[in-house]
Design goal:
Layout: H1 2-23, H2 35-43, H3 50-59, H4 73-83, H5 85-105, E1 111-118, E2 129-139, H6 144-180, H7 185-207, H8 213-248, H9 277-286, H10 288-309, E3 315-324, E4 327-336, H11 345-409, H12 415-450
Helix pairs in contact: 3-4, 4-6, 5-6, 6-8, 6-10, 6-12, 7-8, 7-12, 10-11, 11-12
């Protein structure tokens, strides 16, 4: 009877333990992806989406909710933060890294071993059953768990910073594509119109014997070049709108009828508005890629600490109870691995090498950032000087054009001279616009080096860590 009661108690305890364990288990739920459905959902994305409008109002309180007359760099940037799938990937990687930190902190479960024996030769009056449940409780030593947790936490921090780095790259793609839509085709067509009239006037003089054939040839070559430039400018605008849609995470058709505001590119910041060296240094230290590289190095340090700790064996305690032929027996076992054949030297050497590699990667990332900043500042200053020269040439050409117009009105010159002056003025305006675009490209490189916009409005990259669109419930 005692044996039956004991076996009943053991069975009940085992059943209770299994029930509690299974009740805490997660359940798998399939979530298939239908390519046709996702493609349709992508095509239905719009800048007029109600969720997007609420998201914009949340981060840009001054922005009105509803339809907009135009979309500028700031609003398009936040629209990209709302839709861009690359950010979804970065967020998912961060969530996986945070889950790995939970895994790293988990303690090993004890094991239960139940052994039942039946002695067929047991003497009469003595129970033939031997019942012996035993536990094995693993105990980690030497701070292995702390090192493992620290490594996982630093890896998760690097993944979090990668979200900010991805957000910045998304912003730069939006800026570059938006700048590519800068309207130059209309200016080229204006120059083309003046050059076509100039060709006609030279052709008349050529028929009258008042012009040479080389002048006619050069005029036609210039007209053909402008025709090619106009076609190329229109192609660049079309391609840039497609690139902008891709940067936003939208289909190209979603930009149909959307007016793009380019006011942010009209006046680049002067040299006096550039950050000081102290601000430059602070920006370098706070660049997400630099901080992520530092987090990776700290993770490699924790990994080395964990491998060194593995030189010290873990302990497994084995308390047990045995009902042996009517006698109750208690036991306490102790087991550990003896470091006789190896002392984990191989993994320690690998971890040291990976720490050295992580240190080199950090120094490389930091040196690259410093070089990018120095190069970008020098390039932007040079482009500001070039833009000032283009402005001066345009001012001089406008004066020359006004003078040519006055002389033509006074009858002191013919129409060809006046038209030629208009051609030169249109060329100067085109040159100034091209220089402005190059200056804005240099400014984009400078902002990219600092990982911050230079305009007055700040950009909170940490706001991109939370997924803006409604996500399905997790299984």
């Amino acid at each position: 009877m005692k044996i039956q009661r004991l076996r009943g108690h053991i069975t009940l305890a085992l059943a209770a333990g299994l029930t509690l364990g299974l009740s805490a288990c997660a359940r798998y739920q399939a979530r298939p992806i239908e390519p046709a459905a996702t493609a349709t959902a992508f095509d239905q994305r719009s800048l007029q989406d109600a969720g997007l409008q609420a998201f914009l109002h949340q981060h840009l309180p001054a922005a009105p909710i509803g339809a907009r007359a135009s979309w500028d760099l700031q609003t398009l940037t936040w629209a990209a933060f709302y839709y861009q799938p690359e950010l979804d990937v970065a967020r998912a990687q961060w969530q996986a890294a945070k889950a790995a930190a939970i895994t790293a902190g988990a303690r090993p479960n004890p094991t239960l071993d139940i052994t039942n024996q039946y002695d067929v030769d047991a003497p009469t009056g003595i129970s033939p059953w031997t019942v012996g449940p035993a536990l094995s409780i693993p105990i980690e030593t030497a701070g292995k768990r702390r090192a493992r947790i620290r490594q996982a936490q630093q890896t998760a921090e690097a993944a979090r910073l990668h979200v900010a780095e991805t957000a910045w790259q998304v912003r730069q793609h939006v800026r570059s594509a938006l700048l590519g839509t800068y309207p130059t085709a209309a200016m080229i067509r204006q120059a083309q119109m003046w050059q076509a009239e100039r060709v006609q006037l030279i052709e008349r003089r050529l028929r009258a014997g008042e012009a040479a054939q080389p002048d006619m040839t050069q005029a036609r070559i210039a007209l053909n070049r402008l025709t090619l430039d106009a076609q190329d400018a229109q192609r660049r605008v079309t391609e840039s709108r497609a690139q902008l849609a891709q940067a936003l995470g939208l289909s190209v058709s979603a930009l149909d009828g959307v007016t793009l505001a380019l006011d942010a590119f009209q006046q680049p910041p002067p040299a006096s508005a550039l950050p000081t060296q102290a601000i430059q240094r602070e920006a370098l230290l706070r660049r997400p890629d630099v901080r992520a590289a530092l987090a990776d190095y700290e993770a490699s340090q924790a990994a080395l600490q964990g491998e060194i700790a593995k030189q010290y064996p873990d302990i497994a305690l084995g308390p047990g109870f045995q009902w042996d032929a009517g006698q109750a027996k208690w036991s306490l076992g102790l087991s550990l691995t003896l470091p006789l054949l190896n002392q984990n030297q191989g993994p320690i050497a690998e971890a040291r090498a990976r720490r050295q590699e992580a240190a080199a990667r950090f120094l490389t990332t930091q040196a690259k950032a410093i070089g990018e900043v120095n190069q970008a500042f020098a390039s932007y200053r040079q482009m500001l000087d070039k833009l000032a020269t283009a402005d001066a040439l345009l001012t001089a050409q406008r004066k020359a054009s006004a003078s040519a117009g006055a002389l033509f009105q006074a009858g002191e010159t013919d129409r060809l001279d006046w038209v030629s002056a208009q051609v030169e003025l249109a060329s100067a305006e085109l040159a100034r616009t091209d220089t402005l675009i190059q200056t804005q490209q240099a400014l984009g490189m400078l902002e990219d080096a600092l990982r911050r916009p230079l305009e007055a409005t700040r950009l909170d990259l940490q706001a991109t860590e939370k997924a803006p669109r409604t996500q399905e419930a997790q299984p």
